[in-house]
C-alpha cells in the first residue's frame, strides 16, 4: 500500500468508523518503510489537529459531498491538502502521488476529481487561506463543547492551551537511574550528535531538541532509557515511596510509571494492575526490556475483590481513566471522539475507583490521584468532593493545600502535557 493510500485509510477508520488513531496507525505502519511510517503519522496528526480547516477547504473545492461508497476520496483529498499546506511536499510529487493513490484505493475513476481539486487549491491558495483564517480560527479546531469548557475553566490560559494542543510535542526521556546518571547519558547522546537538555527539577528527565526513532538511542534496547513525558515523571516525587514498601500502580498500562517507581526507588515491591487484558503483554515487554520485577495483575480497579492479594498497600498510584484533554497534541483524535456526556460518566467512574482503592491503603499510607485531564471536575473538584465525604483522608505534603494542575502551553508545564496530581494521606482515626 502506498503512503498516501495508507494515510487516507487511517483517517477513514478514525473519523468515519470511530476507531482510535493509536490502534489503527500501527496496523498500517507495519506495512510501510520506516520513512513512510513517519510521513503517514505526520499527515494523520496534521489533519486531525486541524480537521475543521480541512473540512472547510474541501467544502469550497468540491461541489457536493462525496457519496459513502467513495468517501475514502474525501480523506485522500485531506491527505493531498496536508502535503501542500503543512508538509512542504513538492507540488508535482504531492499531486502525482495523491492522484496515483486512487488506484490503490480502487477508485481509479476519481483520478480526475482528485487532480482537479488539488490544482484548484494551488490556484486559489492565497485567497482560500486568507478566508480560512477568518472562518476557522485556532480555537475552532476543538468541538464547541470542549472549547467552551476550557475557556470557562481557564480564561487566562485558554489560548495557550489551544496553541499547545496543536503543536508537535517534544520528545522527553527518562534515564534509568539503575543504569546511568543524567550526566552520563547526556554524554552518550552528545557522542552521537544528539542534543538534549536536562530538566532543572526532575532528575533523570531529558528533553531532545529533535524527535528521532527511539530505537537509535544509546542502549535503548537494554533498558538504559525510556520515553515518558515530563508531566508524567512527577508521579514518583509525589508518591514518596521508600525501600521495603508495598506499592500498587492501579490502571498501570503501559507501565511507564511503574518502571519509574522501580528505577528511582529500588527495594519496593510493586504490583501493577490493568483492566484490559490486551494491554498486559506490552507491559511485560516493557518491564523485560528494563529488567524490572513487577507483579502484573489483570482486574478492575473499581472492584478489587477478584484480584486483591489481601495485603494493604503503603502507597497507591491511581492514574485514573479520564477525558485525556491534557494530551490532545499526542492523541489528536480524542477531541473528535469524546462527547460532552462522557465527562459525567468518567467522573462517576473515577469516584468509584478512588473509593475502592482507598480501602486498600494502610493507615498512614499515601495515595496519589493523577489524570491527564485539564477539566476541573475530573481533578480538583473530584478531590474536594472525596475529602468532604471521607473522614480519614487528608491532603499530603508537598501538595498539602491543593492539587497540582499542569496546563499545556504554560511556563509551569515545561513543555509537558496537561496533567493533574493530588496526594492524600490516610489518617488512623480509630
UniProtKB/TrEMBL annotation:
Residues 161-427 form the SAM-dependent MTase RsmB/NOP-type domain. It catalyses: cytidine(967) in 16S rRNA + S-adenosyl-L-methionine = 5-methylcytidine(967) in 16S rRNA + S-adenosyl-L-homocysteine + H(+). GO terms for molecular function: RNA binding; rRNA (cytosine-C5-)-methyltransferase activity. The active site is at 372 (nucleophile). GO terms for biological process: regulation of DNA-templated transcription; rRNA base methylation. GO terms for cellular component: cytosol. Pfam families: Methyltr_RsmB-F, NusB, RsmF-B_ferredox. NCBIfam families: PRK10901.1, rsmB. Belongs to the class I-like SAM-binding methyltransferase superfamily. RsmB/NOP family. Specifically methylates the cytosine at position 967 (m5C967) of 16S rRNA. This is 16S rRNA (cytosine(967)-C(5))-methyltransferase. It comes from Aliidiomarina taiwanensis.
